[in-house]
Amino acid sequence: MHIIQHKEPHLTRQSDLIPSGVLHTPIYIIGAGAIGSFTSLQLAKMGFINQTVYDFDTVDVVNLSNQFYRHTDIGKPKVAALRDLIESFTGEHITVHNKAFVGSECGHTLNGIVIAAADCMSVREDIYKTCKSIAFGVRYLIDPRMSAETLSLYTTKMSDVAAQAAYEKTLYSNEEA
To answer: For the segment 5-43, what is each residue's pLDDT rounded down to a tens digit?
Structure first.
């Protein structure tokens, strides 16, 4: 019996589920809080290391109970702390931007998969409009939303006009949130 050696042994258990060719897909995570920080970690542990994370906030003591940060991260920019944690857990580097996502400034760089993990509906709408305006750039928009007792997950294939229309119906104002 011949055993095939995986070139990245830590990914061996998932190699029949996740083809290695997709691991270099660009992934943009906008928001490094409760959803974004853990999503970034899980993706990195699965081998998705072509990540770019945007967030302008700093780690506060109130973030420790539901976000992927340590006491020693308090006061640090969330993206810097997340970058260090990802490197510590996986040995890999992710790209981070310690600033708010503004579609008109950042949109030209988006492609691949975008994860809207911001805690503000107006930012989610800006992310969506930016993804929509980039012809063939963004393949999928993933929008996980959570509150105290509920979780919703919206996925949109950006080349599908019907999927875009369905997603638009899920958007609402910050006041309604």
So the answer is: 446 666 666 667 777 888 899 999 999 999 999 999 999
Beta bridge partners of 144: 153
Alpha helices (H) along 91-151: 103-106, 121-133
Residues 5 and 119: their CA atoms lie apart, in Å, by: 42
What pLDDT, in 10s, does the model give residues 104-131? 888 778 999 999 999 999 999 999 999 9
Amino acid at 1: M
C-alpha distances (whole Å) from 36 to each of 2, 10, 40 are: 40, 23, 6
**What is d(CA 160, CA 105) in angstroms, rounded to the nearest whole number?**
25
At 87, list the tokens.
Answer: 């490197």
User: Do the Cβ atoms of 77 and 69 come closer than 8 Å?
Assistant: no
Interior angle at CA 111, CA 105 and CA 115, nearest 5: 85
